[in-house]
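User: Write out your own:

AI:
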Amino acid sequence: LCKHMKVQCKIVKCDVAAMQKDFDGGLENCARIARHKIAQEELYKLCEEQNCNVKTAKILCAHTLDDRIETFYMRSLVGTGPGGLSSIHKLNGHVYRPFLDVKKETLREFVRKCAAFFNEDGKLWCEDTTNFDRSNFRSILREDLMPVLEQIRPSYKNSLKNTMNLIEDEDRYLDELAKKFIALNFSLNKSMDGLTAQIDRTNFIKLDKIIKRRVLKQCIECLNNEARVESQQIIRIIENENNIGYSTVITKAIEVTILKENIEICA
């Protein structure tokens, strides 16, 4: 299809299993990070070759409404806040997902029509083998839950799409409030030992707990944007905001400590 549509196709291979040995997370998440890293490197390379502004460049991903709904249920069942319930975002840094409001079967049908137009009978798309792994949480939801929901309420995908879009709008507004606080009360220092961030504890304590959660999450992501921060970990930090000396490890590489004047985050 790339050949017929005159789109450059480049295949890059990497040993994800080997990467996972030094990674705090599952194989699927490790593969996702590897894909994003490779795509990011290609983006910078292309921008340099074409003399384009990298700030406005985009990496397009083919996530669909089905992927967004699966993520919605996964996060609902393990516990999350509004940010998690808004599920996958259309725009996240350089990554843009234009098909998030499109059902997977609609996208597949489009590809089939393209293939028929070009008289192409080769492999139309690649299926990730983990999609059929019954030990995979997402696969179980896809194979067992989604068909039942389709039977109970055939229009449930469109209903959930509208719900997630509403949550995302409100989530974006609250995120902006957190960013304004961070701009005035956050500092980041780099040393031989790594990164150290500090949040003004006096001003942090005055915040509503809704904004506190977002401030902590955003500050942790400043140190490591791949960090998987669970909502219960954030809640525990807020519960101990007056407990001077309290310390907790968010992941194997990030530690949060409550000091007298600051909340310190080290990576």
Summary: The radius of gyration is 21 Å.
